[in-house]
Amino acid sequence: MLNKNRKHTRREFLHRCLAASIGSAGWLGFGGSLQLASAALKDTSALPGYKALVCLYLSGGNDSYNMLVPTGSGYNTYQASRSNLAIASSQLHGLNGTAHGLHPAMPRLATRYNQGQVAFVNNVGTLVVPATKSEVLNETVPLPKQLFSHADQQTQWEMTAADAVDGRGWLGRAADLLATYNTSLLPMNISLRDIRTLQIGNQAPYVLNPHGLEDFQHRHWGEGDAARQQVFESLQHLAQTHPMMQAFTQVHDDTLAIYDELSTDLAAVPAIPNESAYPAGQSLASQLKMVARVIKSQAAKNTVNRQIFMVRMGGYDFHDRLLNAQQERLSIVDQCVDAFFNTLNSSQWGGLGSNVTLFSLSEFARTLSSNGDGSDHAWGGVQFVVGDAVQGGMVGAYPDLALGSNQDVDGGRLIPDIAVEQYAATLVRWLGLGDAELATIFPNLGNFNSNNLGFLP
Amino acid sequence: MQRQGFWTGLLCSVSLLAQAAVTDTIQISDFESSGISPAEAARFLNQASFGPTEEAIAQVQADGYRNWIRKQWALPQSSEYTFMQGLGLPQDQLYQDHRIQAWLTYATTGPDQLRQRVAWALSQIWVISDLNAEIEARPLATAQYYDLLAQHAGGSYRDLMEAVTINPLMGHYLSMFQNRKPDLANGIRADENYAREIMQLFTIGLVELNPDGSVITDGNGNPVPTYGQVDIENLARIFTGWTRGNWDSNHDGYCQYWEFIYDGDNTGLLPMESCELVNPSDSNTYNYHDTDGKVLFTSVNFPAGQDARQDLAQALDVLFNHPNVGPFIGKQLIQRLVTSNPSPAYVQRVAAVFDDNGEGVRGDLAAVVEAILLDEEARNGPTLLPNAFGKLREPLLRQIHLWRAFHAQPVRYGQFSDDSSDQVYAQTPLRAPSVFNFYRPDYSPQGAISNAGMVGPEFQILTASLATSTANRLLDLIMGQWVGQDLNEVNWETGVVLNLSTEFAMAADLNTLLDHLDLLLMSGQMSAAMRSTLYNYLATFPYNDSDPYWPDGARRTCEAIYLIMTSPEYAIQR
Of A325, A364, B26, B201, which one is least surrounded by beta carbons within 10 A? Predict the structure, then answer.
């Protein structure tokens, strides 16, 4: 009987949180949870239509100054700095109205740029406050901790304010503040790969296997499965005082409840019309196809108005064999992102391309200087944003790539011009957050000159 | 910070409890002799091996914990390399799948359980991954890398550091292989990858630690970093000048630094070598070690003119002697073997043994492991810290636990096999997604665990989808999977079945069966409520099943094992 009325579970959960937060310092420690709990009970019928953000996480530190390359007078400087890592200018794809070209592996993204659906955000990275070279070298301003380290820079990209260590990332925090938009059991944050801090809010993201939902087979194994399931549930719910046992049970409860709803929804989604456009055998392709299916299944539901997805692709830590490895990686990105938006804009999907915005996240760019046949961990880099809602173009100034320039702290590690907070705030503002809410998510946002980079309406 | 809060809050009550435990209620076992109950022995074997068997329980009872540990170290090492050679296949037909077979075989049946279990822990600290193409292409060398960890598991940490540092697979994974000295005129720096990770992950960590593992802070309350970018750059230059072993095989005795002949595994089987012998008239034989002077940690000088070996040895000495290593590595070994949230005092006791094994020797891993396993907190954790002690069982180790407890046999493929544990568990030996392992030691999932100020590293791979696939894999490996079963009914993922004849016979009396399973699977820690729930369900199945599919007692046995191994009380090893 434990599964009965499962769909009421979340509402009960929120009621319990509300009660608990009154007397529990632990809950009060998460600013905004009180607001969340009370707001979640509001009527949501008047809220606007469906929007989804898709984070394309390129793990390892994309060498983004080999992705977006100067073609005009800046090319010689680029070539000099990059030495044996430079890409020939003749191989770059032209971007209309700019003095830049796109990586040879990305013709489709270049076409979309020329159609106004792509923004490149230049030299964005982790910062505490704006910083000049002398301020960085003399450490006269606060700096992000452990620059150039994968795990730490990923964490700071995901949490943005290293001092506000409460375990939540900015997509998780955004979802907490947007909770009123959805009444579904399904968490707003969905990961097609793994749980990362980025998507952790008051609850962890739902992790969805890109190859399809899988149920507990003991519910379907031979005769007597109903009785087995009941015992299974009883064992999950014996009273336990150990937090780890409680956490284990919570995972099981969430898993079952969501399965029941989402599997029904996905069964009604049509076949992907441009299936063959996705590169075969690539994890990123499977991940984005499943995102498209979930979007199709949820966008029309009045219980779901906001969703945040993360897809993730590794292999960007180009210490060796950079030129070949990046060609191979970015080609997959180019094909997958293009196919994804073609799916969304197909008649079968009902033209959802303006309801979905995809953005890249990679923890740092790489040293402009070569380490022989690769590049090492650096700092500010270029990110891209794609979608029909995007106001395409170049965002921010493309940096000076000369080694030893006023932006180069050492070996072609560039001090960012744009903070992660500014990039992130512009993205989640589009989902419906205002200045005051953005300030709570991003405590350091006020240190920078603008909280809106303008690439989304 | 949350964790510190947790321990500050608990410290007082813990020490009181511990005192009470020693003087009153808890009989601290005499580690030298017996007096160990079967349940205590089983609990110990969950920490010190890949899981208890009836035979192993009897052995621990007969030997006592300490003697059992010392006898374990004395056993010959099971070698994955030897296993693979013994398959009788030509080298170009050996794949990483065969290495996985070796790992599964020795985890399940290897006599040197303690050594293999510690090697497994070390493989989650000194991470390499065959998701890297250079490693994937070298399955024999990958097996040899794991053997290296097992070889040093009871040896000196300093020796382990050196063996891994010059191992060519680590060289490929973190790109110290053919790392070259800077050529600033051409914008080329030394590669910083290995320099960074050996400090951050393998030895000292990011911040200065007290001996109990707590973070040292400066006057403003900020953690004190252990190193800065300058140190990384200097260490990167120290680690220059290393290339493949046997470099002079066909070059007249001169080292050709960039030589890279693809010869299957062979390049990976020889330790990297420095390139001292060069022919001045041939630029291919250039020595790429940076011989300029270097400085680490602002005051440790590396004189100009030292060769690659001298620089490397000095750097490893410096890192090895850093006071962080004991608490930093000791705590992670505790987390892998015993408990996710060791008390600071436990960490400090283990770190002290790392610093000095009692005979003035630093970094004696056998002594460290013994200290971890014999510690009062390891032996009496459920009583001392009932709501904090323990760890989520690693999903792959649940499978091995099952196989060991019930004497599994590989009937389909002739070897213990598994082609998909990375997908169903997110865990395959030497196949982590990054150098940061399958999970981070400080991962604290939102909810009950983070609210309690605790961490639960293994929860990072207990997601909704992995919870499902893990349970489903266990179902596939249990239901109908007994010795004598029709091969068509045997699971395809592993091809392994269980020897359950003892259990089938016991199932005539459910109390006998449940006692037995409680001991083997839960170290006698099954709650009364869980037991009665199981009893009532199992009693609905007659011992003699009318369905010919089920031998007598089989239905009861399989249902019981599955339901136990998917329960929260089982999942948290205490």
Answer: B26
